[in-house]
């Protein structure tokens, strides 16, 4: 593996004298040398972590869950359960209420944060909100 490719894999910038071409690994532009360093086979990824090296730790993405907002039709007394119908893990349910419309309830422990419910909501009354560490520790998520 050449030094420019090694520098690119490990996130180091090459010296300015080497120019912009050195910032890309060999074959990144699909040129004549595109298959020259593909020793691992057709499924090899150029950004794969070399053997014995730990993967770079990126910023942690907080877990998100769906939360109904005031614009929800069910909260306004209109029968709509499209979000619950689209929720694959069945985390979005409707709690029956005596003398009124059922209210939407999100079971945070079951919510995968996939966003399928957001796509079908006619009023865009669902938001994905991050679960705080305190709520997760308390058993809410």
Fold and architecture overview:
- Residues 43-65 have a biased composition (Low complexity).
- Residues 28-42 have a biased composition (Gly residues).
- It is a single chain.
- Helix content is 16%, strand content 16%.
- With 141 residues, the chain is of the alpha+beta class.
- It has two domains: 1-58, no CATH class; 64-137, Alpha-Beta Plaits (2-Layer Sandwich), CATH 3.30.70.
- The chain has a two-stranded antiparallel sheet with strand order 1-4. It has a two-stranded antiparallel ribbon with strand order 2-3.
- A hairpin with a 2-residue loop joins strand 2 (92-97) and strand 3.
- Residues 31-41 have low confidence and may be disordered.
Keywords:
Alpha-Beta Plaits, 2 domains, 4 helices, two-stranded antiparallel sheet, iron, alpha+beta, 141 residues, 4 strands, 4Fe-4S dicluster domain-containing protein
Strand segment count: 4
Largest sheet, in brief, is: 2 strands, antiparallel
Order of helices and strands: HEHEEHEH
As an assembly, this protein is single chain
- What structural class is derived from the secondary structure elements? alpha+beta
- The average pLDDT is 73
């Amino acid at each position: 593996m050449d030094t420019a490719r090694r520098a690119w894999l490990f996130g180091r910038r090459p010296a300015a004298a080497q120019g912009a071409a050195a910032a890309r690994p060999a074959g990144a532009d699909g040129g004549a040398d595109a298959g020259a360093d593909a020793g691992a086979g057709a499924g090899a990824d150029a950004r794969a972590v070399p053997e014995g090296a730990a993967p770079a730790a990126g910023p942690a993405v907080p877990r998100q869950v769906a939360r109904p907002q005031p614009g929800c039709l069910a909260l306004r007394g209109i029968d709509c359960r499209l979000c619950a119908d689209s929720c694959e893990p069945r985390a979005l349910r409707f709690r029956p209420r005596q003398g009124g419309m059922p209210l939407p309830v999100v079971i945070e422990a079951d919510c995968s944060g996939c966003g399928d419910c957001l796509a079908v909501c006619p009023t865009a009354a669902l938001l994905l909100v991050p679960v705080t560490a305190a709520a997760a520790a308390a058993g809410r998520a």
